[in-house]
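Record filed here:
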Amino acid sequence: MIPTNRIPTHPGVILKEEFLVPMKLTPVALANHLDIPVQDVNEIIAGKCGITPEMAWLLSQAFNTTPQFWMNLQTNLMDFYFYYEAVNSFTAGLRNRQSRQ
């Protein structure tokens, strides 16, 4: 069952903790294997950028997963943030309305 009471884990955390660390891989080694700049890997791990469809495909090939696995991680994270922003906007509107009354 998927927890609903916490922020979804960023795909970069999954990449690092579930793949790189157990396999004793460095971001440099992964970047070299994928033939991409190491900065791209580091930005994903740091949570500064997300997983693109192209990156999902590359990671799936490198780790014998599916592109959907990586895209689902990204989608779950984005769904949470869109939901969070919508709720905050709605509640802010209610607070503004109540303060005017």
